[in-house]
Structure formats: structure tokens, C-alpha cells
Amino acid sequence: MEFMEGLHPGIGSELKNVYEPEASFEDPINQAKGLEQLDAVYADLFKQLQDIRIRVVGHAVGTSRHYVSWQMAYAFRRRPRQLDGVSEIQLGASGKVCWQRDHWDATTGVYQEFPLVGGLLRSIKRLVKVKFPRIP
Fold it and tell me: How many CB atoms lie within 10 A of CB 75?
């Protein structure tokens, strides 16, 4: 959890302390295998976003997987944003991460930022959301 809250642009050199050499990572946008690809994912994160801060808000330990709930504050196109997510983590025999899947909503975290796609997503949400009767 300290690793998540301490993310910084030069984190690549520290990945070997947390992840196994052939660790797998996936989120709604990326899939990576091995430290080199994982380093590229983190480097791109800091290239695309500014002022990234992650705060761990909860965690749970399962029999084979661990779950970390987090909030990421960042700036995109000079505008502040916040994204909530959960990391599902499996540790290998070494005690390091061998598999990680990050769950977060790409429609609100990424896609809505683009004018055509964002407008389309808002229209779809209005169309499919539950319509409650108005209470006078």
C-alpha cells in the first residue's frame, strides 16, 4: 500500500522490489507482462496525467488474493479529476506481486474526456438509466 501511495514519475527503478520479474498487470486500458512493460505503463501514466496522488481507502486479504481500494486524484488537460478504483493483487512465492488487475470505470475516467465519445456516453447513460417517478 505504501508503494501505491508513493507513486512518482521515476518509479520504474523500484518495480523490482514490489513485482516479480514476469508479473502480469491489467486495467481497463492496458495489459502488461514483465517489469519492462509494467515500467512503460507507469511511465505513460505520468506522461498523460499530472499531479497524481493515490490514497488507499481500504484493503481486504483473501485466501489467495488481496484487494486494495483507492482514490486517485490527478490533473488531465489542466483540470483536476478523481478516480475511484480497486486493485486485485496476487502474491507469488517470493511475496512479491505476480498478478494485478486494477478495476476502475474507464467511461468516467478516460473516455468522457473526448468530446464525441463523451457526448455519446452521456446520451447512452440517459437512455439506459432507471427513471424514477417524481415525488411531489
Answer: 12
**Are the CB atoms for 92 and 98 separated by under 8 Å?**
yes
The tens digit of pLDDT for each residue in 45-89 reads 999 999 999 999 999 998 889 999 999 999 988 889 999 999 999
Look up the domain containing 26 and give its range.
2-104
54 found inside a domain? yes
Positive or negative: CA dihedral 111, 49, 4, 54: negative
* Mean pLDDT score across all residues of the chain: 90
Taking alpha carbons only, the member of 104, 57, 58 closest to residue 81 is 104
Compute the distance between CA of residue 91 and CA of residue 114 in angstroms, rounded to an integer. Answer: 36
**Is 77 contained in some domain?**
yes
CA 58/CA 55 separation, integer angstroms:
9
Q: What is the pLDDT of residue 85?
A: 96
**3-class DSSP assignment, residue 82:** strand
